[in-house]
Amino acid sequence: MIKDISQKSEKENENIKTLTVGYTSYPKNVCPTTCAVCGDSASGYHYEVPSCNGCKTFFRRTVLAQRKYECKKGGNCFSSLPKDRRCSCRACRFQQCVAVGMNPLAIQLVGNAKDNQLLQEIINKRKYADDQEPCTSKGAKLSSSLFTVEDSLDRLIEGLVYLEIKTEKFRKSAFNPHPSHIPPLEQMLSSSSMLNLADKIGPMPNWPLPNIPVPSADEIAKFKPGMHPLHYDEPERKNWFFFDIMSSIEWAKAIPVLHKLKRRDQIVLLKAVVLLCFNVTQAFFSYEQKSSMVIHPDGTSPGLLPTLFIKNNPMGEGFFRLITEPLIRNKIDKKEYVLLKALVLCNATVDGLSPEGQRILAAERDRYNSALFSYCMATRGVAEAPAQYAALLSLIDTLHHQAKIQKDFHVLLQISRPPQCIRVNLIEEIME
Fold first, then answer.
1. NR LBD domain: which residues (predicted)?
2. Exposure check for the chain: N or C terminus, fewer CB within 10 A?
3. Looking at residue 385, what is its pLDDT?
4. pTM of the predicted model as reported, rounded to 2 decimal places
């Protein structure tokens, strides 16, 4: 027993040591579990370091406001205080943010970076520390290359990949609310992220599942008095249309630019782009499963309504291949996909956005555009990169076309739907 405790202690010491190294030492494509600043649960990579939302927000606000804090206990609070009291000292908390590698240049600043005195002090301290450290040092040294454009773009991509891993885990989780229990859009935006629920409740058991059989004429006849012929009353079977609309909103809530927008702009934007994010998410997951047809995490495919239920159905098998086939044809990789999805979200041309919202989204879209083109150049080469970049951007037009078909189809269903059928407010908002 004593031996086991000793081994655990050594492992914990190793984990503590990792909190003092720069971002380049953190493994890529791995979901961080621990905030490098305070030791709490990490929500992702923020400003190039695994961190929680609290430390991310604290660092950003301190840099933007150029606040100066003073420690009254000698600047050693993080080494002398217990974990739950460390962050009570703002001076030591900010010092720790800088020490573990939070990059102030990764913050979208208001105005010129040269005018931010606190930011310049951090950069100068880093440069001085680099000059004083020997080249072989592996301590808290942070290379000046941390601030290069290429490295910043790389961190941007890694953060999106991490978020996608969290979203995939959420889709596969045992969380399965009834569609009628899904709140409206504004209420969802006011609540905290649900993506972390996947870590608490675990994956859905007993997957894969068989497809729901195509309804018979008798079953379809039940639809007329208000009984939906496609049942989702099995606890392990998700209604993927409702669930993935919800998961797309939860994904968007984790993108920092959304929180820079006013609430009205958030609602206007998500009403316009959520369906596109929903479609590209389902398509890329299917593509990763080597399927040209949309396939869900439980192994099922979207149900195709027979012609006796609705004539001239535009959502046949071809509809569900609109995005998967270009993904296959262009051999899209995951990093290209997450950047494409971020570009879809940052649509500054959506009708109804305020001028400020348009400006914020346009600036963020430029960042993702630059990252996507740079990534294509780095991975595809000069000869192939422009064509790959153009192919990726053309997918956005296809996603808009696909969403229009879905919204037109929704209107068609409303005409034939009896008034007593369940209406899900969130879906009605998205399908407007």
1. 205-432
2. N
3. 92
4. 0.66
